[in-house]
Recover the amino acids of this structure.
């Protein structure tokens, strides 16, 4: 089991306890004692405590590390520069009879598309010898739902641009310098944006409309806050698990607040 | 609305219609006897009028398909629904729904516009092996399966791996080989009252089917990995089994560098959504289609990657046009040419019968008014048919005009997912199966809000 650019202790603690690391499986009845763990990260995270093989790399070395591991597994010498830990990681992966690589948000920093593509090809290569899986660990609640929605509706997972009549999908980060108004739903945008972009939005006094059940950084800067019901607590909703299976979440308590989609539908009706 | 479809050349092999000119009348979504007055008349003089198409193997909602979209840009649900409608289809059957992915598949099916849908519940025999070994327990197994069919809102059963095997040597004693498994499945088919779809494989084709009529051999094409398997498949079909062809394209559009997309559904082997090209198997599948003289083989594509719906007109053309075969396969592969009636049987009448949709796939009185009209000139030679039969001029779904003048005019047409309403009760065996799952699988069964609207049959 290899965690790449992921720290599930913080992003998905139940994943570690209930499903992946400590869980007793049909063929791994002693839980973690029957599993081998490894992690690759640019920070020394808590995973180092139970991952005997923890490879700390420097930013920018990710692609070289994957390329080196793939080369060794294919029986070729690893291309220069050889990242420290390449051979140990290749040996670790080659020894598995059934393996999984969990990718975290760290994969998306730097050349994310290329790195993910190389990891996918590495898993395809490993599959020639043993069962191997590539499993993206999503971070926030139901972020998987957004990807399924985009793929179902547009056939692409990137950011759709409906402005030109036809849907154009962008895989590059949004350039907020062109933006003169922002509507945020289901996210804390200012938490994720780099400081320069946040400062630019503030300097240009770009109005932000925030739909949120919580107070957060974005609502703190918003010109308009539209409080919404919390999905799965105050309103029934469908949410996608990390493995892509949808679950129906029931409403547990009454709320006078509308769900996000109701607010968006009302806005569309008023504007349209 | 009362409609008249006037003067079309009617094709319906179930009624013996083979291009005879005639009128059809529609009232309350059904085909009815001639009406004295109608609200609208659709002029179809000289045009071909058939029942609407029924897709027996439309991989439109398989778990993992979004990875195919992620890596290869497969069409979105909206594009798929529109493609089927413009081709003259009103029903799409998803082949791979499992106990754990039922909610996902049903939600995806509900997102497919225009066309009606249904799905096969794929049985994982490893979950049942402790009961399958004892004939006296098979009635309880049958009841459990019927309950699961209802609970997952599926239409029929499918078995992808008709055997029990484990990779771990420790479990070798639990192996059940294909031949005894097929005996058990034939018994189960009698209990559940419906033929079982078995994904064709070389192992299955070489095995003896104990009761051929109890089996439907799904997607024959990819299984034809050797020449002798064509004969074996033909023998099964002649003995009474039904099958679907699983045709595939001769070449891959994007070359051999595409990433494999294999999805673990808990089976012995992963489901390969992007399998490697096997041109020889594709050639044998077409040869099988051409030498299969009986009425037991329906048209189907091998899967979204090997036979996308956008290529169906090209694949139809192989059935009736020698030149198209020579162009794509560099060979005639057989002397036979499908007539239009043969094509209607393979794409409409037989799929409807196999799915148990009794009021579909025919133009007789009382049938649901799912009618496709194609603008095929009477003088057009078979070599040009695919130009016309790949574009439906008018499509009626339950009496509503969905496609008119080659354009989708009613993308919001009501749609439903069909399932077999068994009314079976849960059994103690089911509780025991669920107890062994680390995931609470009963939480993943279909709930209101995850799909529908559903129609029980």
């Amino acid at each position: 089991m290899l965690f790449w650019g992921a720290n599930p202790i913080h992003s998905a603690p139940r994943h570690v306890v209930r499903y992946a690391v400590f869980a007793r499986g049909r063929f791994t009845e002693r839980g973690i004692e029957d599993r081998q763990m490894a992690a690759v990260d640019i920070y020394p995270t808590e995973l180092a405590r139970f991952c005997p093989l923890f490879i700390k790399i420097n930013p920018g070395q990710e692609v070289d590390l994957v390329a080196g591991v793939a080369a060794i597994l294919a029986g070729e010498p690893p291309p220069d520069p050889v990242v420290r830990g390449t051979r140990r990681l290749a040996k670790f992966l080659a020894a598995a009879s059934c393996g999984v690589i969990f990718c975290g948000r760290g994969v998306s920093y730097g050349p994310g598309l290329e790195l993910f593509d190389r990891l996918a090809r590495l898993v395809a290569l490993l599959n020639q010898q043993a069962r191997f899986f590539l499993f993206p660990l999503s971070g926030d609640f139901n972020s998987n739902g957004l990807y399924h929605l985009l793929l179902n509706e547009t056939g692409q997972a990137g950011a759709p641009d409906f402005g030109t009549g036809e849907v154009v999908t962008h895989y590059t980060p949004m350039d907020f310098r062109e933006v003169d108004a922002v509507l945020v739903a289901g996210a804390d945008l200012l938490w994720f944006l780099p400081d320069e972009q946040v400062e630019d939005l503030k300097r240009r006094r770009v109005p932000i409309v925030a739909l949120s059940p919580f107070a957060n950084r974005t609502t703190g800067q918003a010109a308009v806050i539209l409080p919404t019901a919390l999905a799965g607590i105050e309103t029934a909703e469908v949410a996608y698990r990390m493995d892509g299976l949808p679950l129906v979440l029931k409403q547990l308590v009454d709320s006078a607040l509308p769900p996000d989609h109701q607010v968006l539908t009302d806005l569309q009706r008023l504007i349209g | 609305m009362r409609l008249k479809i006037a003067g079309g050349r009617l094709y319906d092999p179930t009624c013996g219609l083979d291009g005879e000119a005639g009128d059809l009348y529609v009232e309350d979504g059904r085909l009815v006897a001639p009406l004295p007055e109608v609200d609208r008349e659709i002029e179809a003089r000289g045009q071909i009028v058939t029942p609407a198409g029924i897709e027996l193997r439309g991989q439109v909602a398989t778990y993992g398909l979004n990875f195919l979209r992620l890596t290869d840009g497969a069409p979105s649900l909206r594009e798929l629904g529109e493609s089927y409608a413009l081709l003259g289809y009103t029903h799409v059957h998803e082949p791979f729904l499992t106990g754990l992915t039922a909610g996902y598949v049903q939600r995806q099916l509900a997102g497919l516009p225009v066309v009606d849908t249904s799905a096969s519940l794929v049985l994982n025999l490893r979950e049942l092996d402790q009961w399958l070994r004892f004939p006296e327990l098979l009635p309880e197994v049958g009841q459990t399966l019927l309950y699961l069919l209802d609970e997952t809102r599926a239409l029929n059963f499918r078995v992808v791996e008709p055997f029990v095997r484990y990779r771990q040597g420790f479990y070798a004693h639990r192996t059940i080989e294909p031949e005894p498994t097929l005996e058990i499945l034939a018994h189960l088919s009698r209990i559940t009252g419906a033929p079982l779809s078995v994904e064709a494989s070389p192992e299955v084709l070489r095995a003896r089917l104990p009761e051929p009529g109890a089996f439907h051999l799904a997607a024959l094409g990819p299984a034809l990995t050797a020449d002798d398997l064509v004969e074996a498949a033909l023998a099964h079909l002649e003995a009474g089994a039904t099958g679907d062809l699983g045709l595939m394209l001769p070449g891959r559009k994007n070359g051999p560098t595409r990433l494999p997309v294999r999805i673990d559904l808990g089976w012995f082997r992963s489901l390969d959504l992007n399998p490697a090209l096997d041109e020889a198997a594709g050639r044998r599948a077409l040869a099988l289609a051409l030498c299969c003289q009986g009425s037991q083989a329906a048209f189907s594509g091998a899967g979204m990657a090997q036979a996308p719906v956008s290529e169906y007109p090209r694949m139809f053309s192989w059935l009736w046009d020698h030149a198209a075969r020579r162009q794509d396969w560099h060979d005639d592969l057989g002397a036979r040419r499908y007539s239009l009636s043969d094509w209607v049987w393979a794409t409409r009448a037989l799929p409807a019968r196999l799915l148990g949709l009794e009021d579909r796939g025919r133009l007789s009185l009382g049938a649901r008014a799912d009618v496709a009209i194609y603008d095929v000139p009477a003088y057009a030679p078979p070599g040009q048919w695919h130009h016309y039969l790949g574009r439906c001029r008018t499509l009626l779904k339950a009496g509503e005009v969905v496609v008119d003048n080659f354009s989708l005019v009613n993308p919001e047409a009501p749609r439903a997912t069909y399932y077999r309403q068994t009314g079976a009760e849960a059994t103690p065996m089911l509780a025991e199966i669920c107890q062994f799952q680390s995931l609470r699988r009963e939480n993943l069964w279909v709930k209101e809000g995850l799909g529908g609207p559903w129609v029980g049959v």
Observations:
- Residues 64 and 81 of chain A are 7 Å apart (CA to CA).
- Chain A has two domains: 2-136, 143-271.
